[in-house]
């Protein structure tokens, strides 16, 4: 029997990818902006935080308090990092999707495989 | 239709004198203390109210500068919006999320103006309310269920 696999929701997956992209600079506002740019639609900071809290409770991400700046009114930043379990969940989700996707849509003409 | 508001610098002497008299009379009636000047008078002594001769250059929009529509010099996020979020946020999330919003608000206000930033802030509050409320309700339900189980044990 293979080990238990974890799969992510769409928003969870996008958040994890955004944190990986930000490479050590992932705190709430930056994550929200990155996701908003990627999804090309408005994303609420509350949705980002509730999802990040859920991912943290599952052990997919960890967080720590960072520095504060004057424009934040002296409030600290909370940085996020993707843990090993989070990377495994990302891989599992992608593999499952890749198994089901081929052949569903025609290849775009002149596109690179 | 446009409304013309005269600039104080353009007022004729007669009007200035009348204004001076009205202000003086109001101060006499209210017994209002006059701020101490640089000539050594105490703050309780009455003084002549001076209408400065030289006023800033007159424009038709000078009165807008102190109106509620004016752009703030140091814009601050809407306090009511902040309060709504504070009610819905857990203690540990409060500082981080409000700080994130304040940081983004400052950036947006600098790029697009205070009014645009306030609209953006309120949209964030509206968009965040439901996910945060759902979290609060979920934890509330779990706590209630746990309380019932503990009583039954």
Offer a quick outline of the entry:
Chain A is an alpha+beta fold and 113 residues long. Chain A is built from four helices and two strands; from the N terminus they run αααββα.
Keywords:
heterodimer; A: 113 residues; alpha+beta; two-stranded antiparallel ribbon; 4 helices; 49% helix; 13% strand; B: 153 residues; mainly alpha; 58% helix; 0% strand; elongated; disordered N terminus
What do you see in this structure?
The complex is a heterodimer of chains A (113) and B (153). Chain A is of the alpha+beta class. In chain A, 49% of the residues lie in helices and 13% in strands. Chain A contains four helices and two strands; from the N terminus they run αααββα. A two-stranded antiparallel sheet of chain A has the order 1-2. In chain A, strand 1 and strand 2 form a beta hairpin. The termini of chain A are far apart. The model of chain A has no long low-confidence stretch (mean pLDDT 90). By secondary structure, chain B is mostly helical. The relative contact order of chain B is 0.08. Classes of the chains: A alpha+beta (113), B mainly alpha (153).
Roughly what is the average pLDDT of chain A, rounded to an integer? 90
Please provide the ordered H/E string of secondary-structure elements of chain B. Answer: HHHH
Which structural class is indicated by helix and strand composition of chain A?
alpha+beta
Which radius of gyration of chain A do the C-alpha atoms yield?
A: 17 Å
Which range best describes the helical content of chain B: under 10%, 10-25%, 25-40%, 40-55%, 55-70% or over 70%?
A: 55-70%
What percent of residues of chain A are in strands? 5-15%
Sketch the major β-sheet of chain A.
2 strands, antiparallel
Give the helices and strands of chain A as they follow along the chain. Answer: HHHEEH
Query: What is the overall pLDDT average of chain B?
Result: 74
The rounded Rg of chain B comes to 27 Å
Q: Structural class, judged by helices and strands of chain B?
A: mainly alpha
| Main interface by residue count | A-B, 24 and 26 residues
Task: Determine the number of helices of chain B (DSSP H or I, runs of at least 4 residues).
Answer: 4
